[in-house]
Amino acid sequence: MNMVLVLTLVAVIMGGILAFVNHLTEGPIAEQKEKALADGIKAVMACNDLKVAKTDEVKQNDAKGKEMTFTVYQIQNAQGNDIGAAVESTTMGFGGDLKVLVGFDPEGKILGYTLLEHAETPGLGAKADKWFQKDQKGDIIGKDPKEPLTVSKDGGQVDAITASTITSRAFLLAINNAYNAYKATPATDGETGATKQNQ
To answer: pLDDT tens, 32-76?
Structure first.
């Protein structure tokens, strides 16, 4: 009976300590995520002086019918002109969730991207953070995913990461899904994000 009471007491005390530590670190962790997102938006939009004019949640079904949620940040420059959007998109990579932030100009061309989260193999799939950047082997910057981007192994136009085809396919799927979510937001129409602004 004494051992049960002692173990219960230890469990309650440890639970309290963990809850207290979690409460203390909640704020700093949230701030760190916010800063990483803000820095990521600046990086993918290739612009430092910008503001998020509007944030949309877009729900779409993937190829298997599973509903997915995308966050679309409509971006304006310092003069208040629409310069496109940054879109958060998550797919399943080789090691787990692969979360990408992609920047699109008003016409839908890719301005840049950054990986927000991934669990890919270091030295292989983890190379996705650089592999598809401008002037790299799998360069997707400036491409328009109106025709979905696919790896060359599947008849597409993008070189896959060496020995990481699964990660490459997952990454390009995240980009294609992000594009579709961007085109589905109220600020854009079926053709370009600039149409509404021009009208």
So the answer is: 777 888 889 999 998 888 999 999 998 988 766 788 899 999 999
- The residue with greater pLDDT, 186 or 103, is 103
The tens digit of pLDDT for each residue in 146-166 reads 999 999 999 999 999 988 899
Cα dihedral across residues 119, 165, 136, 188: positive or negative: negative
**50-61 and 82-92 beta bridge pairing:** unpaired
Distances (CA, A) of 34 to 28, 40, 101, 183: 10, 10, 13, 25
DSSP single-letter state for residue 151: B
Q: How far is CA 50 from the centre of its chain?
A: 19
The model carries a pTM of: 0.76
Which two structure tokens, joined as six digits, stand for 102?
């992609």
**Exposed e or buried b per residue across 78-102, where buried means at least 16 C-beta atoms within 10 angstroms of its C-beta:** eeeebbbbbbbbbbebbbeebbbbb
Whole-Å CA distances, 63 to 117, 145, 176:
22, 16, 12
